[in-house]
Amino acid sequence: MTFDLNALQADYPLLFEGLLVTLRIVGYSIVFGAIGSVVLCMGKLSGKGPGYRVAVFIIDFFRTIPEVVLIFWVYSCLPLLFGLRMSAEVSGVVALSLFVAANVAEILRAGILSTDRGQLEAAFSLGTPVTTIWRRIVLPPALRRMLPNFVNFLTELLKASSLLSTIGVAEMVYQATVLGNETFAYLEFLTAVAVLYFLLIFPLSLYVRYAEGRHTKRISR
Q: Is pTM beyond 0.85 here?
């Protein structure tokens, strides 16, 4: 079996259309999921009450079920329960947004809890407004600490987006499969998709490796 570049040259625009669909869905999922993650994080940080219990349940539930089950449930069951009409792409965004919200809520909470308690106590003793404490003391170091974990999660989100091909979303894997069915050039198209995912994810992995190395050096000093 030989690798036929002519097959790619003829149909590569469809693969890039699939790439754009992947990036669009991931982008929307991050935006909507980030909003949900802030709400869930604040609920869990409260430590008690109905908001805390609801946040803990949602975070634990959506972090433990497989992504493919979540995708199929949103696509097949959510419209039946609420009488909704959603396209496959919208269903994918909803499912991945829930996945993002639950996971990023924990990343954000860990970053906030890592704030130096001495700085917080000093700020409160000086009567610093709460909004200033969050803006100047809590969030800047929390965001720096959570960035490597968020980037690492982003690589997992990009991989999970490939599962949307199972419900007919025209992302990269779906396009490669369709093109393979039409031309029998499965080797060429699936290899191209693998390379595209590598080009997306490997730089992110390098950043995480670099950030973790810097953190280890800082601790060892």
A: yes
What residue ranges do the domains of the chain occupy? 5-220
Kindly report, residue by residue over 4-17, the tens digit of the pLDDT. 788 788 888 899 99
Name residues whose C-beta falls within 8 Å of residue 180's C-beta, 6 or more positions apart in sequence. 186, 189, 190
Between the two ends of the chain, the Cα-to-Cα distance in Å is 55
Return the percentage of the chain with pLDDT > 70, whole number.
92
Domain 5-220 coded CATH 1.10.3720.10: yes
Q: Label residues 188-214 b or e (16+ Cβ within 10 Å = b).
A: bbbebbeebbeebeeebeebbeebeee
- Contact partners, residue 130, CB within 8 Å, separation at least 6: none
CB-neighbour burial class of residue 218 (10 A; exposed 0-12, middle 13-18, buried 19+): exposed
